[in-house]
Amino acid sequence: MKIAMIGTGYVGLVTGACLAKIGHRIICVDRDNAKIETLKRGEIPIYEPGLSELVTKSVAKGKLEFTTDLAEAVQAADVIFIAVGTPQADDGRSDLTQVEGAAKQIAKAANGSKTIVVKSTVPVGTGRRVGRILGKHGDDHEFEVASNPEFLREGAAIEDFMHPDRIVIGTQTEAGAKTMRAIYAPFDNGTLPFVMTSLETSELTKYAANAFLATKVAFINEMANLCDATGADVTELARGIGLDERIGKHFLQPGPGYGGSCFPKDTLALTIQAQEADTPTRVVESVVLSNSHHIRRLGKKIADFCADSWGVDRKLPLLGKRIAVLGLAFKAETDDIRSAASTVIIPLLIKQGAEVIGYDPQAAEAAAEQVPFLQTTKNMDEALDGADAVVVLTEWQVIRDVDWNRAKHKLASPVVVDMRNLYDPHTMAAAGIHYASMGRPLIEPDLTPSPKLVSVG
Predict the structure, then answer these.
(1) C-alpha to C-alpha distances, 214 to 27, 225, 259, 260, nearest whole angstrom
(2) To bridge 144 with a disulfide, which of 115, 195, 297, 396 should be the other Cys (CB 3.0-4.6 Å)?
(3) Cα distance between residue 210 and residue 151, in whole Å
(4) What is the mean pLDDT of residues 251-277?
(5) Alpha-carbon distances of 271 from 147, 283, 285, 303, 351, rounded to whole Å
(6) What is the rounded CA–CA span in Å between residue 249 and residue 271?
(7) Taking a C-beta distance cutoff of 8 angstroms, is the pair 168, 148 a contact?
(8) In angstroms, rounded to a whole number, what is the distance separating the alpha carbons of residues 329 and 349?
């Protein structure tokens, strides 16, 4: 099937490349000429494991191409996906300017009947809104409008697309549903659930899924904080509740709060739409507040633990200290720093007088541009050299694999605050490191000097 993908951001590029992989002919459209020229050269503007290779192979097979000419792409396609950005507006709502603009351009360019698929994450009612725009500007052409939300995790997007838990499709007619089933026919193996529903239900499903996952993240972080206060262990607590099939073990790993391009934006947009519908989502509202409070309180946790480890007063202990932050992206396997904990916590440390150097294998440059006074490096040893304390914010494998028996010798002071619970507290204590994590009891470090080797003979 010939498909036009309007938007070559994260969702559009991944979706376009994966649809090409399963046999469709895809033309990706973007008004950013520089981005299109970059893609034509085989350069990928975002970091996503496996995406570069997938795009290269699809282009070589003639299944994927890039253009700035929306009209040409629309006229050549049977189906047009709208995968443009829906950024958070100043009032917290999703800004639909790009979605509406794309719909208007599609209508004006159409040379016959088309199926329009809204892939962007949008509030309930957007599909109907797109339909009205198409009808107003479409020269009496017939348009089928469908909703097909994405459920792609950054860092595992290709795997998620090629091996989905379910495919959610919202349509208005049987013809629209038939077209959408045809697009995803390679996945229709008789066991994968296809959730065929209305536009409204499809749109709300995306928001509801993200809100529920965000709720689990906020919940386990609150439990971790309570464990810190009571001496309980959140790792054992998470296992104890996660073995209940009604709860499940996923998303019960404490951390520095949720971030990225989806959870913060989507939870807030959902609460606003619910308020406007006079059906406030009190649980989700509390999740938004809980996550914001959690991230900010970590600045104090870091300062207090450093003060106690250094044996100094808790009043401005970070003044003049060098703090190494390991991990700047909101999660591993991505270069995305949108709403990342690092963009909140690092300014709090700098405000307390700390000199902060951040390490991240992919997000260092983006973080340096967004966070004033932050020094960054792609060399972890450079970050660790002379650091008075280390703060771990992202669960990159290279950070998990740090040998602290070796790395501690680079530090001015052996203090590690781990917001991802990557290391075993007993192992860190045995290495002579003052170590704090999320919701796990503190263990006093072994500060006994290592015995000196004496040469005999």
Answers:
(1) 34, 17, 9, 11
(2) 115
(3) 9
(4) 96
(5) 21, 9, 6, 33, 32
(6) 26
(7) yes
(8) 17
Distance CA 26, CA 4 (A): 6
Structure tokens given for 35: 């981005």
Rounded to 5 degrees, what are φ and ψ at 282? -65, -35
Task: Give the predicted TM-score (pTM) of the model.
Answer: 0.93
How far is CA 394 from each of CA 53, 153, 159, 329, 343, rounded to the nearest angstrom? Answer: 25, 15, 21, 7, 12
CA dihedral 364, 369, 374, 376 (to 10 degrees): 20
Which residues, 6+ apart, have CB-to-CB distance to 100 below 8 Å? 129, 130, 133
Sign of CA dihedral 63, 69, 72, 73: positive
Partners of 194 in the beta sheet? 167
Tell me what percent of the residues of the chain surpass a pLDDT of 90.
Answer: 96
pLDDT band per the 50, 70, 90 thresholds, residue 448: confident
**Domains in the chain, CATH or no CATH each:** 2-197 (3.40.50.720), 207-290 (1.10.1040.10), 294-436 (3.40.50.720)
Over residues 163-188, mean pLDDT = 97
A 10 A CB-CB count for 254 gives: 27
- Residue 455: exposure state from Cβ atoms within 10 A (0-12, 13-18, ≥19): exposed
Percent of the chain with pLDDT over 70: 98
Q: How many CA atoms lie within 13 A of 216 on its CB side?
A: 16
Is 306 a catalytic site residue? no
pLDDT number for residue 455: 46
Q: Tell me if 323 sits within 8 A of 388, measured CB to CB.
A: yes
Q: Which helix (H) or strand (E) holds 434?
A: strand 434-436
pLDDT score for 451: 55
Q: Over 80: is that where the pLDDT of 453 sits?
A: no
First vs last Cα of the chain: how many Å apart? Answer: 81
Confidence category of residue 450, pLDDT binned at 50, 70, 90: low
Among residues 18, 227, 262, 306, the one annotated as catalytic is 262
Which amino acid, 151?
F
* pLDDT, tens only, 314-332: 999 999 999 999 999 999 9
> Which residues in 267-371 belong to E strands, given as ranges?
322-326, 355-359
Mapped onto helix, strand or coil, the DSSP state of residue 95 is coil
Mean pLDDT of 187-204: 96
Contact 300, 391 (CB under 8 A): no
Bigger pLDDT: 454 or 339?
Answer: 339
Where does 116-256 have alpha helices with state H?
A: 126-137, 157-162, 174-183, 199-230, 234-242
> How much is the pLDDT for 140?
85
